[in-house]
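Re: weekly structure request thread

Next one in the queue (161 aa):
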Amino acid sequence: MKPPIRLILVLLLVTVSVRGFAISCQRQTACNQALRDTLPEAVLGNPDRDAEYPGGDDAWKRFMEAEVNGDIPIKAGAKPGSYTVCVQFVITPEGLIDQIKPLTRHGYGMEEELVRVIKRSVRWLPAIKKGTYEKAYRKQNITFEISETPKKKRARKRFIF
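Done, posted below.
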């Protein structure tokens, strides 16, 4: 007796889907664990007030949009595509940026550009826990969109914040 081909295909598809989901969850868990392993335990607490860029998230976004040079990966020869760059950094109790570390490795100068811009930011308002200033960490993502454009035209904004 032959099992119906459709039933076999459906079972195979479900098995592959469940396996893919499990692998995806393992990678995400491993990534989160790697992030926790790179930060001192004191940085991971829950503050009463989180660290904040002066002017809030909107001011941080405006700063990043104004400072990031979207032409960097094109000049370095990046192929068309979407590149999400992630950088982690610590905000000290004094509000200074410290321990800047790229978490991705796409190359083409993208991680270096994001590190350069983060280093240029002004002093932050530090996190506060029980009335004392604490360290806080941040992860910043930016997606560089590289499309094939004629060499004579120059697009100004080549990233998504």
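The chain has four helices and six strands. The beta strands are 81-91, 97-102, 127-129, 132-134, 136-146, 159-160.
Next request, please.
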